[in-house]
Amino acid sequence: MRGGSQPAGGAMRGGSEPAGGAMRGVPVKRSGRGRVALLALLAATAVLAPAAPAAQAEYRMAGAFGHPGSGPGAFGPPRADFRTYRLLTSPGGIAFAGGQVLVSDPLNSRIQRFSADGRFLGAFGRKGVRPGEFLSPQGLVVHAGKVFVAMNGNDRVDVFSLRGRWLRMFHVRSNVRRTHAMARGAGRGQLHNPYGIARAAGGRFFVADLLNARIQRFDGRGVSRGQIGRFGRGAGEFLAPYGVAVDPGGNLWASDRDLNRVQRFAPDGRLLLSVGETGDGPGDFLSPQGVATDRLGNVYVADTNNRRVVKLAPDGSFLESFGEGVLAQPVQLAVSPDCTVWVSDYRRVVKFAGGC
Known about the structure:
The protein has one helix at residues 175-180; strands at residues 60-65, 94-97, 100-105, 110-115, 120-124, 137-143, 146-151, 156-161, 166-169, 194-199, 205-209, 214-218, 224-228, 241-246, 252-256, 261-265, 271-275, 288-293, 299-303, 308-312, 318-322, 332-335, 341-345, 348-353. The chain is 2% helix and 36% strand. The strands form 6 sheets. It has a 4-stranded antiparallel beta sheet with strand order 1-24-23-22, with no helix packed on it. Strands 2-3-4-5 form a 4-stranded antiparallel beta sheet, with no helix packed on it. Strands 6-7-8-9 form a 4-stranded antiparallel beta sheet, with no helix packed on it.
């Protein structure tokens, strides 16, 4: 299944140029079935991630929590066919706050809190469009006692305290935003169905702006600082950017669920690497969605329609895949400091242990 149709909803593509400029005409080696896509140009000034470890871990399922429903610890009503991945699903983004695990619950319009062993601790959020209300919360970042939520249905990023008190939202130049909190658009800083969100060590945020086919950059105050990418199939371009993650070297990794690839960009927006082809072999993808990195710079991709997690080395080479036969619909994922991989699956969160 190619998964190459354009996203629904009449995306406003605009025509704005990517920050730093996509590098055109540079040969890229594709990475289907073990071939790695590396741009021929890796400038000496590019920030590189640490080298991959020599030995790879054997991943095993270490637990799971969640079930269909709307009560505590549940992630939405059951669906007849979970393979219709284009439909909204739960759970979504995962983030860590001390000993707690925060999980977005798009179908129930809330954020749920769990202990590391999956015990339900509480939740916050209610459905609506006003400031602090939820419509399809997706990606999560926790930093300095705050929770940053990519609000897919409300086309914005909201900021909460760890206890769920609404603090503010990322700035968009729109009066509509201040009254009814709807900010959809294709202008500077505006979002149209955002999914993944990531934070770099220097404080900059990256948001996967799916229907605008770009990655938006914001500073720590939520002010727009430009974009990476634009609509297209070429190097550095996107059809449907979904997951974002920042590696220890400050480079951005972004998945494209329609082009079945993952691209790496330097902090200044220059394209460094492209990995992936359509398929089910090593290094191939069928609708890659969530992306995460570990402390060594390895990259993990939720390969949704292949029902697995793909692990890449910092240089983009294929290392291994896991979760086959266990995962039904992997969508988002996160890696905790001990290198446990947490995966948002169909109506549950699955943990895989194995180390980095």
